[in-house]
Amino acid sequence: xxxxxxxxxxxxxxxxxxxxxxxxxxxxxxxxxxxxxxxxxxxxxxxxxxxxxxxxxxxxxxxxxxxxxxxxxxxxxxxxxxxxxxxxxxxxxxxxxxxxxxxxxxxxxxxxxxxxxxxxxxxxxxxxxxxxxxxxxxxxxxxxxxxxxxxxxxxxxxxxxxxxxxxxxxxxxxxxxxxxxxxxxxxxxxxxxxxxxxxxxxxxxxxxxxxxxxxxxxxxxxxxxxxxxxxxxxxxxxxxxxxxxxxxxxxxxxxxxxxxxxxxxxxxxxxxxxxxxxxxxxxxxxxxxxxxxxxxxxxxxxxxxxxxxxxxxxxxxxxxxxxxxxxx
Length: 328
Ligand code: UDP
Hints:
By secondary structure, the protein is an alpha/beta fold.
């Protein structure tokens, strides 16, 4: 299939593009490089540096490449920033998304896979979280992702668009070529590994007075390769229907302390920690029920063990000590 990947020069986008190319799809990456990296554009994919808000360039890219489906991953995705700057998030995640939906409509492209998020649920009362758990975002990031999900729903009603919305839990890990290189880095696993190599003096634990066994927050970490595989499966389902799926490994999840302990084991480094205050808006526990995508699409995570996830991130970090800088 001929697929446009928006945000394909980003962390998850690069891994999705890598799998699409490996599976024989024709891939066009559309990315404005505001957060992505030129060096993260995978071999075998065409790259167009462009902004979704540039409707003419976007339409031309869709037409010139005879695109059949879009995987839409370009977005602003920092929870804290989204609360400080709601306008930026509405602009990049909703307004730009509507430009994309309109361009798709004009070019008669009816299939879209969308990167959504567990943040659409807010702080739900039930765990594990199901797709039927009520959505109630507690930050602008989750709110704007949910707004785009709803827009797709109404475009389906009006124009026959088919969408698969994938609500990610905590993506982590790397492939040999593609890994996590954010600036600023806010995610626990890369921060912990940066502390392991001495790039940071310590990891700050954001609170240990949560109602969990060791008092730190519990999250559902999913390997980026397993996440990417779900996008490829979701592309297929669009020939029949639209769908919304949670994507996590389920189980009991891992606490912040367990993640740091795992990183110590994998790296063999001490990794100093400091206890800090809670980070505003962090729910105590976020665990996905991914039963639906398992039973309907046959999706199965291959890397459920946190050790394997951390190990892949560690291998990538050592091979790319400066991230994508100096790596083309
Ligand atoms: N966390 C932490 N210290 C850090 C970064 C994160 O204690 O330097 C915690 C955070 O409070 C959350 C968990 O680690 O409970 C995962 O955070 P991350 O930002 O990686 O993902 P999120 O769950 O926010 O999407």
